[in-house]
Amino acid sequence: MFERVSQTVEKRLSRAASALLSGLLIIAIVLGNSRPADALPLPSVKVRALPAFARKYGMPCSACHLAWPMLSAFGQAFKDNGYQLGNDRDAPIYQQPAYWPVTFRITPIWHRESQNRTLVDGPAGPNTAEGKVTTDGFDWSGLDFHTGGTLAKNFSFYVLPSSDNTGAFHFESVWARLDNLFGSSWFNIKMGKFELDNLLSEKRILTLTSVAGTYTNYHFQPLVSPGNPANPGAVAESYTFGIGDNQVGVEVMGHSKDDRTRYSASLLSSNDGQPGLPTNRGYGGYFTASQAFQVGSLGLQRVGGFAYLGQAPTYFQFTQGGVGVPGTGIGNKSFYRLGLIGQWYIKKVDVTTMYFHGWDNAFLGSNTPATAPLPVGAQAPTWNGGLFETHYTVSPQLILINRYELVRMSRQVFATNPGNFGNDDVLTVGFRYYPFISSRAGFAFHNEYAIIRQRGASPVNGLDLTTSSLLFGFDFAF
Amino acid sequence: MRTLKMKSIQLFLAVIAIAVFPALTPGQQVDAHIGKLSGNTDAGKHLYFRYCWGCHGFRGNGEGENAPYLNPTPRNFVAAVFKCRSTPTGTLPIDEDLYNSVGRGFNTTNMPSWIELTDQNRADLIAFIKSFSPRWKTEKPGTPITVPPEPKLTLESIRHGHELFEKLECWKCHGQEGYGDGPSAATLTDSNDQPIKPYDFAVGWRFKCGVTNHDLYKIFMTGLDGTPMPSFADVIKPEEAWDLVHFLRTLQVTHKSPELTLWESTKEGAEQVAAKKIYGTPTGSGVKQ
Question: Residue B13's pLDDT band (boundaries 50, 70, 90)?
Fold first, then answer.
């Protein structure tokens, strides 16, 4: 009888679990079908979590990661200390000679991508119509090879060859850092290609889909003009910049011993992290500061601000076969991005709030060479953005994720554009389950759905463009 | 029918046991009090199973999955024997001792400083750590020792400290020059029967139980329980312990302390210190020679 009861209970539980999973899947697919997305981009997996560090120090992933790859306060301090614990055992001389700080990460996935108004060929000829395009199937992400740590006490490094899912590699990060100069944690210098000192790290983002694998606010640039049948495709700015992109330069960073107070200042080449000096000789600056404070038993709260002051060329001084000669971009015009961020912890719930403001010079906003007069009515575009991201960390093994991002244009480059042209809304939900937590490897069962609506961005009719992405995957690192 | 009823009762009891069992392991509500902070066992449990179990183990017995690779081995909270205390040898530490240890970390070991956690987090962790051992239920922590004010630093104090170093046979473990290479050094084991090295004064300047002269004084007078380092509370007077502190600082030739400066101002001291310093290519360990 007992066995029969057990079997029945087991069967019921099994049925309930199956029904729950099926229900979630169906809901996700239905949602996906009802909210269709851009040229079906691939999932973006460029995130960091290093079992190599866990192996070196014998700590579980959960020590440094609230839920990997997202850092905990302890993990952030470890990173800020130059990947050192500060116990006089950080130098490689104290490791087994065979220890090699390498981690690889890749994610086999099933994903579904959909876009409601994709540019397609129509009766009037090529690229004259819009069509809903949806596809799904099994796939995989790019591959990251992380290697980082210390070369000696207070000399740290990080090198990240990263590929897309075709195996085409590039360097996502290449830097070396002098830590604790003059014996002070307030003075560290890093040079190379690195992630900007963003409290809300895009390289440690918990979401992986093509829609939400990056933060929209970190990469937003205003659209210049809507697409129309005569000129299909909404026109984008020709220069590219994203606070979420790793940049090339030098960074001075400092923090208090307990990492409550942090600052950084970076001098960066104005080429959005591209190698080989492809555009110009301009430089930009990025500045951050933040302060954390304890609120009773709720946890550590942090507030901060950031500002990027940059410039970008508007034309090439020389061309070769009609193509600009790398490094000869001139006619620099300025742009800036500003933001305020708060990270609020209420026991197992953490909420990140961010306000974002952007401004582009009218020449950049209208893709006009500095030698030419501005088009009639052209003005400097400005916009405001916001982010509200919530996590519920059920345990170190399970985290629920919810994010809403919005971008609102406050001034269009051309007053004739609709006022809401280019406005974005992005909604993301998901969860990550870690079946085991160890100091040797990481594994997460990743589940996510994300949808973005871009106002007036459809290529032919200037209607709203909606893109959605649903993704399940086995995210692992070793 | 009766069998069916019995099995139903068994099932009911099994369900109750499963529901209640997690609440019983390990012992509940052994709180911690550090100043105005009160540690909560349940909150500490969540923190422990995020940060600590990899080394200290699920049961707190120091047998985490990484323990075999660590030297020294992680603390066994079930035994409740702690090195860094303000209480006499053989007694339990006060909560503040454990709290300070978690915040400070243990130099030259795998135990880092957890100062990045909130004060409340660390208090909660202490409450949970105490739940592993029955000692906390049957014994009270010792009474913290009194540390008298540090007397004025003099050459006489340093010299007397040197005499005590010889008389108390500190050199047998730590070596005549303080390199941790005394004749007994190779034979030492800790309470887990694991080999343990005496402190090498020539490398670095931090001690496992702190960095100040006050901390060093406490090490003499409380001992490092679980290691061969005994308490000298019954052997030397407080002022003698301070003399020993002053002398031992002169052995830390890589750390510019007032004691070393004073000692180097004498011809004898300058020669000794110069003989100990090694000048050459930096090794990458960060130790300045």
Answer: low
**CATH (domain of B98):** 1.10.760.10
Question: Is B289 in the A-facing interface, judged by CB distances under 8 Å?
Answer: no
Q: Tokens 């702690």 label which residue?
A: B82
In a domain? residue B14: no
Q: Judge if B132 and B164 occupy the same domain.
A: no
Q: Tell me whether residue A303 is exposed, middle or buried, using C-beta atoms within 10 angstroms of its C-beta: 0 to 12, 13 to 18, 19 or more.
A: middle
Contact A87 B110 (CB under 8 A): yes
pLDDT at B10: 58
Question: Is there a contact between A272 and A249 (Cβ–Cβ < 8 Å)?
Answer: no
Q: Is B5 part of a structural domain of the chain?
A: no
Task: Say whether both B262 and B182 belong to one domain.
Answer: yes
* Mean pLDDT on B166-184: 94
Task: Decide if B257 is inside a domain.
Answer: yes
CB contact under 8 A, B286 and A151: no
Rg (CA), chain A: 24
Whether residue B15 lies inside any domain: the answer is no
Looking at the fold, whether B167 and B112 belong to one and the same domain comes out as: no
Nearest-angstrom CA–CA distance, A467 and A41:
10
Q: State the total domains in chain B.
A: 2
DSSP class of residue B235 equals: T
Average per-residue pLDDT for chain A: 89
Structure confidence by residue, pLDDT tens digits, A133-179: 999 999 999 999 999 999 999 999 999 999 999 999 999 999 999 99
> Interior CA angle at A349 toward A347 and A351, to 5°?
120
Instruction: Determine contact: B53 vs chain A, CB below 8 A.
Output: yes
Residues B133 and B209 grouped into a single domain: no
C-alpha B20 chain-centroid distance: 35
Q: Which one is predicted more confidently, B192 or B174?
A: B174
Q: Do A91 and B285 touch (CB under 8 A)?
A: yes
Rounded Cα–Cα distance for residues B215 and B40 (Å): 28
Q: Which of the residues A7, A10, A59, A84 would you substitute to probe the B interface, choosing the one with the greatest number of B C-beta atoms within 10 Å?
A: A59
Whether residues B133 and B159 fall in one domain: no
End-to-end CA distance of chain B: 84
Neighbours of B161 (CB within 10 A): 22
Residues B63 and B125 in one domain: yes
Containing structural domain, residue B61: 32-138
